[in-house]
Amino acid sequence: MSDQQIAAIEQHAARFQQDFQRVRREVQKAVVGHKAVVDGVLIALFANGHALLEGVPGLGKTLLVRSLSQALSLDFSRIQFTPDLMPADVTGTTIVVERDGARDFQFRKGPVFTQILLADEINRATPKTQSSLLEAMQERSVTVGGVTHVLDKPFLVMATQNPIEQEGTYPLPEAQLDRFFFKLEVGYSSREELSEILNRTTAGESPAIERVLDANTILSHQKLVRYVRIAPHVQDYAVRLVLATHPQGPFATPMTNKYLRFGASPRAAQTLALGAKVMALLGGRAQVTTDDIQTCALPALRHRVLVNFEGEAEGIHPDSIISNVLETLPADARVPA
Q1: The 3-state secondary structure of 95-158, one letter per residue
Q2: Structurally, how many domains does the chain consist of?
C-alpha cells in the first residue's frame, strides 16, 4: 500500500470516526451504560455483520436495537419470536390471488424484507423457525417456492436472546450462531446507571433520537473497512487465534484440549479481521494491529466454540478459554514450516 493510499484511508477515517460517534451518541440518549455492547453493535454494523445480544429480560437489549434503528435512515422490522412462530411468518409465503376471474400466485413478503431486522427473543422459537434466517443472514436473499428474492442493502439482523438455561428457550443451531458476527453479553447495570435509568424513564420525558446516517453512507463506510490493510503477521495472529480453539490442533492450549468439544470456524477469522479493521479506523489508522485483533476476540469467538461435557460440569465459560488463549499465544510468532 502506497503512502498516498494510506493517507487517503486515514483522511476518510476521520469521517468514519465522526459518524460512528454520532450514532453512538444518539443510541446513548436512550440506552444508559453498556458502552461495550453499544460499540460492539456498531462495529458489526460497519463490518456488514449481524449481532446477537444475550442477557436476562429487562436489561435494555431490545431498546438498544430499536434506538439504533431510529438513528439510521433504514427500513426497520421487528419479529417477536415465539414457540408457535412458523418459517413463513418470517420469510413470507405464496398466496392465491383472484384477478378478473382468474387465479394467480403472488408472493407476499415477510418481515425479513427490511434493512434492520430485530429478531426479539430469537431462542424462544423452535430451531425450524430459527433456521429460516440462515439464507437471509449469509446470502442476503430469501428463496420461497424456488424463486430467490434479493434483500435490500444494507441488511442487518440484530437478535436478542435469553440465557439458554431459562425455561421455554431453544438453543440456536450452531450453523446460525456462526452467522452472527459478534455475540455480545448484556450484564446488569451499576448503581449509578440504575439511578440514571430511573431519572430518564420516570420523569415523563422521552429522548428524541435523531436520524444521523443513511444507507448510502453506511455502505460507503462498509466499503472503506475492506480497504484497511492487515499485515501478513497480524493476519497470521488472527489465524492462529482461531486455530488455538481447535482441540488437539497445533496451537491448542491445554485448556482448549481439556474443555472444548470443537473450535471456531473460518468465519471467526473473517470476523477477527473485519472487526479489527473497524477498530483501526476508529483509531485513525489505515493498518490493523494485534491489539485490534485482541479487542475483537471475545465477541467474535465466544459463540463459535463448544464446551464439552467436562467443561460444562466444571462451569467453564467460553470466555475463560478464549482469555487463556489470548494470554498464552504469542502475537509475533509465525506458522511453522
Answers
A1: EEEEECCEEEEEEEECCCCCCEEEEECHHHCCHHHHHHHHHHHHHCEEEECCEEEECCCCCEEE
A2: 2
**pLDDT, tens digit, for every residue of 184-242?**
988 887 888 788 778 777 876 777 888 888 889 999 999 999 999 999 999 999 999 99
Domain end residue (candidates: 178, 199, 220): 199
Residue 207: inside a domain? no
Residue 177 and residue 90 share a domain? yes
Same domain for 195 and 240: no
The per-residue pLDDT for range 309-329, each reduced to its tens digit, is 998 899 899 999 999 999 999
Domain containing residue 271:
228-331
